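Chain A, query sequence.
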Amino acid sequence: MNRPLWEATVIEGLDNIEGLPKGCFAILTKVHRAILDREIGGQLLAALHDLDSGALTQLPDRPLTVERVPTSVELLSRAAINRVKILGSYAHVAQRYALPVTKGLLKNCMARKSCIRYAPRTRFNERVSFHRSFDGISFPLDSIKAIRDARPQTRFNDVIIAIIAGGLRTYLRAKGELPDESLRAVFPVPDRPSKTNEKRVHHFSYIFPRLFTEITDPLERLERIAAHMDRARNQSTWLDWQIADDAAKLFPNTLADMSLKAAVTYQTTRHAHPLFNTFISSVAGPHIPLYHVGARMVASYGLDMIYNTVGLAHTAFSYNGNIAISVTACRNMMPDPAFYMECLQQSFEKLQHAVMSAEPVEEGA
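Chain A, predicted structure.
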């Protein structure tokens, strides 16, 4: 409880990195998930940057007064009181989800041999270490839009997912570990905003799209992903923002963390199929240059969280005419992120050629 909820580090000495201007520096911000969402992230980005190089942020005339830091006893007391308040929520949550979840499982059982759709096990579905690997790659935003516009019924995020799917296929195939079944991802999809207390609140549902990594032709893979994503968006899913919100209120993070650690310790995860293989998220950023104390922001990359049994995450962020795909992974699972960037670049180039020429391009059997 004594660790800060956020911190920022200025990184200098980047002159030797190719593509960066002389005197370039980076700002690494680390923010706890408890206080960060897309809206807060946008506000943080706006607070740190200006719209032109001459507009410098003005300091307040008076020092800001913040609340006193609560003691450990006060924090524990508040937690105990909040737990008592939510005891009545258990019955309400059970009433809300018992029937919908049962109907959903029965529907899946009738349509498939299994009630739950699993993903194949890969190197990314093991226990994560304490070490991380990170890298990022950028693509011209106009090129992504051109691929989208060339194929009917294809959305922007479908193209991003298709590029990642092709990169994963190439990477795992080079390792001799490409499964015969399609990999799956978890992808947040924004719901329609609702008005709560006169404020527009955005909620997110989570879908688990197939990546069709078993398909060799990138054009066919894109079309299958687009059709699959369209069906997933239109279907009502019971794994939406309300369930996530209720679960967060009912089950303490410490309890969930202890349960997951116990499962990994006794190696039960080695005998169970994962529900998905990677996280993929996409965030639309500003399409104009931003400045920090007079310096123009060259690029923005995002680090995401990874967990035991899911040690790979992709974050796409658009800024000033480019789209950057950031990759966070367990270092034991992906010790060569630079090679994976090459795989993503190859995936983009082959998809672009296949779409623009309308001719299938084989990536190998």
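The CA atoms of residues 86 and 249 lie 8 Å apart. The domain at 118-357 is CATH 3.30.559.10 (Chloramphenicol Acetyltransferase).
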